[in-house]
Batch of 3 targets.
Target 1
Amino acid sequence: MKPVSGGWSLRRRVISLLTVVGVLLIGLAVAEAAMAARNRTQIDAVLNQTGPLRVQSQELLNALLDQETAVRGYAVSGKPADLAPYREGLEQEKAVMASMRTLIGDYPQIGRELQIVQERVEQWRRSVAEPVITTTERSGTRAGQALVTDRARQQFDEVRTSVSSLQDEILDARQQSAAAVRSSSNVLVVLLIVAALVVVVAGTVLLLSLDRMVIRPLTGLATQVREVAEGDYQHRIATVGPPEFIRLGDDVDAMRQKIASDLAEVRQARERIEWVNSQLQKQAEELTRSNRDLEQFAYVASHDLQEPLRKVASFCQLLQRRYAGQLDERADQYIAFAVDGAQRMQRLINDLLAFSRIGRLTTGFTEVDLNKVLGEVAGQTEAARQYADAELTWTDMPVIRGEEPLLTNLLANLVSNSIKFRRADVPPTVHVSARLVGAEWEITCQDNGIGIEPEFADKIFVIFQRLHSKDAYPGTGIGLAIVKKIVEYHGGRVWVDTDVPEGTAIRFTLPALPEDVEAAATADSPEQSQPSGPDDATTPAEAPEQSADPDRPDRADAAPESGRTGDMRETVG
């Protein structure tokens, strides 16, 4: 980097200019503050002292006039009621004078005039008012009127003259204060104009300096940077101006050299990344194609194996019926094994075919009422429930978006499993319930069967996984795998709740409709402000239970009832 030429830096120049302007503005601000304080004092004198004094002097004169009028009226009528204005005027006089004395601290001349008024008023009261009142009370109105002479009127005129002098003095003081306010306001305006001129001159000087020292060098630097940005990485950047700009130009040129040296490496790295991305894209396409082929293979294999298996099963059954008892006992046993194996293979293929169809053959999502679905499930499992003396109940279920055939298969598998894995000598009970958790419905299928150990909670959802032998509990081991795939296809999750006291509780979630979430939020808002006990906690789906009677309408508002049909107990909450 080349050495920086001498001269003042941009920072030093700006600081010097701002210091000079700041000193001038601070001096003007101090002068304006002092003048503003003086102006406030003078305005306060006009508004809060001389102004109220003028009003109070007039009130004082009115109080004295009321007293004089009341005394003359009493001397004429002799009625005590006519003295009420005199007493009220006397009280008003005392109050007004006391208030005026609190305002004349800065005006001694007004205080002397007020003292003169007070002395003349007291003299008039001693020599005229009180004697007239006393004489009228004792000797009557004629004697009282005799005391209201020209001398008495002259004394009251002297009182009025002293009040007029007081008012004139107050008016002079107010005019002097107003003149002082105008003078200080003019000085304040001049100071503000001077401050504005200082700001304008300083701004002009700063603008011209910035144009010469900042804008022009920056414009030249930007032009050279654009040339480099357009691809001329060998263009050397040179800058003129203050030392800071020269150093900035050197730093930008150093950055240009570094960018030019790194550009080749970046290009090589980009070529390598593009090659890797192309390989990853090929692998992703190959994986997608492989998954599609596997699904197609599973579907075709399970579909095409139906025909030979049907033939094997049919001919084995024909062989069993035709030659039963004609061969020895071992031959009959072998034939039975063949028939059973063919039938089990056929069930496995059918289940595999159903498993492969989930998500492939779709009818589109619609709004599905799970109450109706459970009614259909009750009809499908009616024979098994009657055989096992099973009880199927459910609470009011929600409406969700999904495929009704898949949801029916889902709940039918869960109910069938609950009936199949029952305890000996204990009538099985299956209960399906739902509650809103956030933006999902959590649906639970709970029974009183043999239960599942916690260590096998995840294993049961794996395809063809069995926890018991086929002799103890028949089946292919694919039912819960189908349940898991249907739930995940609908955007939910499924798990086994191992904390239930007895039996098995399989829970799964399904996305709730937006209107259900909004309704739950609206219902919860006022309830949060009211205290509730443990017995008040309910879930949104806690409604009267519905029975497994397929002939009963699947409605949440159905009337409560209970009954028994054959060997199947039906409970409606």
Target 2
Amino acid sequence: MVAANDATAAEPQISAWAPLRTAVYRSLWLALLAANIGTWMQTVGAQWLLVHTSDASTLVALVQTASLLPMLLLALPAGALADTFDRRHLLIAVQLFMVAVALGLTLLTAAGRMPPALLLTLTFAFGVGQALTLPAWAAVIPELVSREQLRSASALGSISVNVARAVGPAVAGVLISRAGVAPVFGFNAVAFLVFALALARWRPGDARAVEVPERFTAALRAGGRYVRHSPTVRRLLRRALVFVIPASALWALLPLVASRRLGLGSSGYGLLLAALGVGAIVGALLLPWIRTRMTANQFLLVAGVLYGATLAVVASVRIIPVVLVALLPAGVAWVAVLANVNAEIQLFLPAWVRARGLAVYQVVQGGGQAVGAFVWGVVADFGGLVTAFYVAAVLMLIGALTSQIWPLPDLRGVIKDPAVYRPPLSLVLEPDPRIGPVLVLVTYTVRPEREAEFLAAMDHIRGFRQRTGAMRWGLFRAGETPDQLTEVYLVPSWDEHLRQHGGRLTEADQQAEDRARELAEGAPEVRHLLPAAADLAMTDHQAAA
């Protein structure tokens, strides 16, 4: 069981650059860096096309909403696709789709046929591609690096994003001032083509091969069920959301700060984003050092205070160098929170549901930014930029204080490696995998003096049964034989139950079940109740009889 209290012991320090020693990860990371640079260049180009339109506050903020809203709508289906099909092929196809969208943006902008509605529509289409990419890519990373390097790989992901945030807007600003917005969109098309080619060159091993892929709808339900019944994942998602909503005010409204409060052009806006990006890079590099000297919840508090202070400075100061300096710690805080939460989720999720769990994280982060960007844009339209930033700063400080109420869980020692379910299934009737529901009964005989300890062990079993497929679960006592306790749970299909016995079981789950069996007298009696009208075939054993 995962402790909800703070982690206090120091962790061994692993270099943030360690994963780059792996050639495959290095080549894909560099290609993704190019794609991230192109993405930020496109965001700046799209926002700058709208800065001088009527209702600019709302339209500029809607660029982020249009690019991030697909996370809210499609991330979980994208995660189910990534857990069901070949992730490499999925990633390549999606990158080629985004190349096509970027080419469309380039040609239409060059032709002068890019009204705000069409720009937002194509930005949304590009966001669809991003929503399909992120869960699959995040789930691939644990296949490329060791578990010990996973936090460093997460930090490198943040470095990639924030190097892009520093370089992309600056390059975009120069290109826009000299050649217009169309070349910015063209660079983005080339960048995603580079990423697609790097993925095509990668040849993963067969470690993740699945004999029979899950059906899409079943995989989708299973992913949602896992997150719903995992208190640890829900706590991590809550921490991300509490930070992202107020933090999104800075990203959504910074173009207006640049143009209206500081009197800057596109190059100046790129400089502000570069300051945020530099701060984020520094934060990613410092993250291994921070983890050895500060508990996770301590730096959550510090990061929230730093970011809140930045929001207040941006709202009240018109001196450009002061604003630039204030943006640096905001970049550090952004990475300190989100890279750490992302790595913790990657470490916690078992392989079979990793992409779906990370997809839910993308829903929370991307959806929080999308909704937050829209809300802060409306607040700025009605109450002004200064009011929007002050309100966001107050909410950020309140959220930082809640880290003492909802701390990050301590995941040290949590074993999520897959285990093979030891007791084999031996049925006389062999059901079709698609039939269901299936009712499973496991009857234990427990002495009265061991009952309290047994009930505690069964509480853990309830959690992993529900996470791995059970729609309903209960523990019942036989009225005729009080020392007999029967675990009853309902699974949607026989296929889902077979997966419970296979790749969905982790070593931690198996240890909990072994503990319950140790507390019982003898082996438990297991029965599988199948639909009476189901398509059933005799096993070889029954046929021989």
Target 3
Amino acid sequence: MNKPLDIRTVPSVCPLDCPDTCSLNVQVQGDTVVAVKGSTANPYTANVICNKVARYYPAFVHGTARLTHPLKRVGPRGSGQFERISWDAALDMVHAGFSKAIADHGPESVLPFNYAGPHGELAGGSMDRRFFYHMGASLLNRGPLCGGVRGGAYASLFGAAPGMPPVQIEHSDLVLVWGNNVTVSNLHLAPLLKKLRARGGTLVVIDPKRIKIAEQCDMYLQIKPGTDVVLAMGLAAELERRQALDEAFIADWVAGFDPYMEQARQYGLARVVETCGISAAEFHALADVMVAAKNMACAFGNGIERGRSGGSALRAGMALPALLGHHGRLGAGVMAKSGGATPKTQARLHGDHLIKPGTRILNIVDLANILQDDSLEVPIKATMIYNHNPVATHPDQSNLMRALMREDLFIAGCDVVMTDSMAYCDVILPAASHFEFDDIYGAYGQNYLQRAAPVIPCVGESLPNTEIFRRLAARFGYDDALFQASDSQLMDEAIDETHPQLEGKRPSEIALDRAIEMMAPDGEPLVMCKNVTPATPSGKIELFSQDYETRYGFGVPRYDPVPQALPLTLITPSSAKRTNATFGSDPASAGPEMLEMHPKDAQKRGLQDGALVSVWNALGAVTLQLKVTEATRPGVLYSPKGTWRGSSQTGFTVNTLIPADIRTDIEDGACYHETFVEVKPAKA
């Protein structure tokens, strides 16, 4: 009788698109991942990980959806009918498809269609960027899909300077959690907030939904979706009226105060109450705790950016600590971009010098239309979908699906599992999971640098992204040394090894069982306006943005509501079962997703809790299971994002209801939360 193989525990890092970037302990038996747990290597994530990573990762790596061999489409586009082929045959297909497009229309007819699947520096963007840059393929602006608006808003005030690390909450006495579903998408803030309250600090939650953290706070404001800018500007005006602004700090560290406040004074109490749907008492109570605070910290979520006025809302919210002088000391400031302290050298890693001057840049949100537009001077005739599941994540899903159905569009795909998007590909290249290759991880929501090595061999014939693009480069005859760099070399090219916190070690040599805390240049904790200077043209926190004035016609925040065509607003937040669309293939995400509705709205439509309902608008319809709850406002619906097509009777997800033509006020971003719908019983 064979003796069972021993289970060993190996360090790793979570690569998913999440601000926390947890350190992991992976239990491995033979070549199989049997369990994923947290580790103490990263003091911030401190042995705690989310349930979805713990529950669903082993099946993601070894389950029936796993892609283990190259595949060729043998049935109609989108049918999911494929046959196994060799790597040589698969690379030949990609070469032939791309080469035909280039011969017929030039290199800009080829498009890399990727976003942020893995967040390792190598898997997320390294050899692939070099490959497409050298080819001269169309460039892609990825930020407008998610994160670009929040990043632009932050940069308009602070430039590229890193913000307050979340661990500094231990020095705060007031924290505003604004549009941030902490327990689902920013998990490790929760214990810090619990400690804040235990020592007598104040937690305020501002969100259209009574999220879990709102049940454990001192004050909760349930504002109407998309009105955050009105509340933030109204607070600025009220704080000025109370003579609570820090004039000395403003004089030393703030630029653009006068035009900013001239705009803010237009948002009086009556306008705030009417627009935001809160009471005057709630507004004044919030102003009271802000005036009383000694160290106020603000945690803004990406949910805010998904409305028309989202960029303005984030700018206005982030301006409040500056107006009150809550910078320059521990526990005061904006918790954002602390990962910017990591000395990434992405231009070197990506090979930015390879970009051909004048190459066009396409907005990722526009791709459904661009892929169908033959009137373009250079139409897109070949694309590669990787690090992305656009069918599950893009707005106006049905239009994107029409674009991918084009038989004259060559589509190569690369992924760890068979997704809704891979089903449209002509050829699929199987990607290794992050447990199967080396990578280095600089987080975006905290300030620790980590490295991970393989814990198991590559499953089947799957390969790391870096090796896949090395082979593609070789197949296309790109023989420069840039395309032959090893993963160790790429790690060293991803991070500035001269940074003092690396202590003379090459990035590829940093320990696997510890995380390196990135500090300010003086070696002390990061503190804006103390040892971190705003990286803006003025060197100050800029409340007026000349860049946005030039580009959009408004240098200060403004409220620009979208006319509501149907009576209900649909919000699609993060899921407790998926990280964006990752793990959407797991049985836990099978069947209809939940739709939360206020009892008044359900009663008006004769809908019962637990019923299967059809949510519809002019773009399409999706079936969801109703949950009647007072956690949401009347007129506002909630359904978690990231479901896959099989979850609905219609073959569409909530993304088919989301318009792609409504854009944010800055950075031309997707407005996921400007989705207006009606609900009726689903047909049996």
